[in-house]
Amino acid sequence: xxxxxxxxxxxxxxxxxxxxQAQNDSIPTNKKDSLIIKSEFFEKQQQKxxxxxxxxxxxxxxxxxxxxxxxxxxxxxxxxxxxxxAKKRALNIExxxxxLNNQLALDERNGEHVDYLAIFDNGKIxxxxxxxxxxxSYDKRTTSDLVLAAGFNNVISDENSLDNSDFKIGGSxxxxxxxxxxxxxxxxTNWMRLKxxxxxxxxxxxxxxxxxxxxxxxxxxxxxxxxxxxxxxxxTDNLVFPLHxxxxxxxxxxxxxxxRYSTKSQFKIGVGxxxxxxxxxxxxxxxxxxxxxxxxxxxxxxxxxxxxxxxSSYVSLGGTALYVKYDLNPLFKDPNIEMRNISxxxxxxxx
Length: 351
Fold this sequence. Notes:
2 domains
């Protein structure tokens, strides 16, 4: 029985090798070199097809042998079934490899590269992640990137300057994360770009002198806490839509079928602003009562303005920038003191 299986497997393998050669010969010579370079994945799949069909042939033959041993079929019937099984698996290899090579030829003709291909034992090719490398566009005027920013935050008002702030300079911080798109403004030059997107801004304030914010009707005021505070932090969370005009030189790269402008490692300055909405206010207090640690997380509207807007600017060399933003809207509604957030820090445009 093993001898028959080995013999039929060798026949099957011979048929497969002939088919592979025939398929390869059908590819024009001037394309062969590039296909050899770019079709390692397909060659592995061809071998996978052969291995799968050999395994399935072995299962077919074992099933035939079982029925023969149980006298379900005669010896002559068994020989016919074995021959048919070998032909079936050889044809399966031929058809599946033809599909594989046709897909390769199609992708090469369309200038596409296949990154992933799933092949199942029924001979079908399932496109799960095909053609992720689209044909390169001649001119790509819009790009996008992740934006991260962090640094110090404080407030400015008629009664509260940075030199005499009610909030800790080093302890009050901000963080921003968002996504930005950058579009070249003019057709034939890249000296000015429009940068726009969406960001989450988190502005934190740490009051001085053991104080925290208390909401009394329409008023939100700093008051002294009854216990010694280990931490007092007030935070506003905003969803904003920044818009900047970005200026600076860029490097132009040209190819046979495309051109690109790059601002990588170039000086850039952005001037603009943002507008959006306040989406949450919270306060965190940490203190001890008779030696026991306490932590309060207080949420409320604290009479903060729901609509936020301001000015922002950045100056960078490469992907790291000095960043400043200033809220034009007061932090709290009337009749509260007009406090406006101001932030300084670093901005990272991960493009």
